Amino acid sequence: MSLELYFHPLSSFCQKVLIALYENDRQFTPRIVNLMEEKSRAAFLKVWPIGKFPVLRDTATGRTIPESTIIIEYLDQDYPGKTKLIPDDPERAAEVREWDRFFDLHLHLPMQKVIADRMRPDGKSDPYGVEDAHRRIGVALDLAERRMAGRSWAVGEAFTMADCAAAPPLFYLDTVRPFAATHPKLAAYLGRLKARPSYARALEEAKPYLDLVPKEKAKAPA
Asked: Looking at the structure, do residues 54 and 126 belong to the same domain, yes or no?
């Protein structure tokens, strides 16, 4: 197998790529990275000195591809499968990319801020940053709720890269800021995402590590 994925199963951005890989039954060599373990971290830094995963290594071409969206774009172009994650039609492709960026920038990143802050040592929290993250999450949830009216998936009736981007942040957000009561369409969408075999597999592989995620609810601003 020429594809090697450097990742951790708990990482939401890594799950995004795993969904894409599993969606098309793409074979790859998993390289699980433990950034807290010196040897594992050092080996990963030799591959990608930036030190952030996921990173895809294609040994057939010698290419190293970082960042979840770029990895999925690469897979869809160079290793296509039964599920076309980025449509051929330019307008549809642009819509997929738009919502991929929406979920990454306006749900994914603030979600990580909220959860990461709960894992900081005492005295190292960032209340202002968390408050701002919750504000951004609230706006994004409202927009996404309206978006999902009458839709099965983020860009219509076909599963795409945008859905790969949506699944992890919605799942983790639901653990710290449950939204079923306020955003029922999004909650139903999350249910469909969790039932999708590709994401169900990624979630199953994350189970041994889920205890590391803070379980108590993070309070949203009034």
From this structure: no
Is residue 84 assigned to a domain?
Answer: no
33 and 128, same domain (yes or no): no
203 half-sphere exposure, CB direction, 13 A CA radius: 17
Residues 6+ apart with CB under 8 A from 172: 12, 111, 115, 213
Q: How far apart are CA 114 and CA 96, in angstroms?
A: 26
Residues making up the chain, counted from first to last: 222
Task: State if pTM tops 0.85.
Answer: yes
| Residue 106, CB-side half-sphere exposure with 13 Å CA sphere | 16
Q: Is 64 helix (H, G, I), strand (E, B) or coil?
A: strand
- What is the tens place of the pLDDT at every residue in 159-214? 999 999 999 999 999 988 999 999 999 999 999 999 999 999 999 999 999 888 87
**68/142 same-domain check:** no
Contact 147, 170 (CB under 8 A): no
- Position 98 in a domain: yes
The total of structural domains in the chain comes to: 2
Q: SS3 of 222, please?
A: coil
Q: Do 96 and 181 have their domain in common?
A: yes
**For 206-217, what is each residue's pLDDT tens digit?**
999 988 887 654
In a domain, residue 206? The reply is no
Element (H, E) at 4: strand 3-7
